[in-house]
Amino acid sequence: MVKQFQAFYPKLTLECSSNWMNQAQILRSHFWNYLRGYGNVTEPMFALRLYGNPKEFGVSLEVSFIERKKDETSLTKQNRVLQVSITDPVYYLAQINGVSQRFVGTEENRQYLTRQVKAGQIRKVLVKYDVDLAQATSIG
User: Fold this and answer.
1) According to the model, what pLDDT value does residue 5 have?
2) Of 99, 104, 107, nearest to 123 (Cα)?
3) 43, 65 Cβ separation under 8 angstroms
4) Which of 8, 20, 25, 64 could make a disulfide contact with 47, Cβ separation 3.0–4.6 Å?
């Protein structure tokens, strides 16, 4: 599926994949692939993540970075996603007190998250878009 996505965007370089075993220590069962547009692996890039359960599932496209490869500028660069306004169905995802919270892509939420990042209450903000695949018949 990731290679099919990459075929539509050939300038993106396929990076490492991850799987649930990498996240088992915190009980998050995810699988994703990173696609880099420019720069090196410390830069924020696209991540395609599978989500859901057997009845309701899909793929989420987000802007993120590889935590194990981050450097001293990765978080600052990641949080630049707050410099651009987004609209629903694109949304923000941020962890507050260890709990992932979803924020609708509104200007009010962008301003709130910007203040929270500056105050040190939120470490990292993701921008995400979900594609429901439960009813899909093909990926082409």
Assistant:
1) 81
2) 99
3) yes
4) 64
Task: Tell me which residue of 94, 91, 86 sits closest to 130, measured CA to CA.
Answer: 91
Helix or strand (DSSP H, E) at 7: helix 2-8
Q: Which of 63, 67, 112, 117 is nearest to 90 (CA)?
A: 63
Give the integer Cα–Cα distance in Å for 21 and 24. Answer: 5
**pLDDT tens for each residue of 1-34:** 778 888 888 888 888 665 544 444 444 455 678 8
Q: Which residues pair with 56 in a beta bridge?
A: none
Domain ranges of the chain: 2-132
Contact 81, 72 (CB under 8 A): no
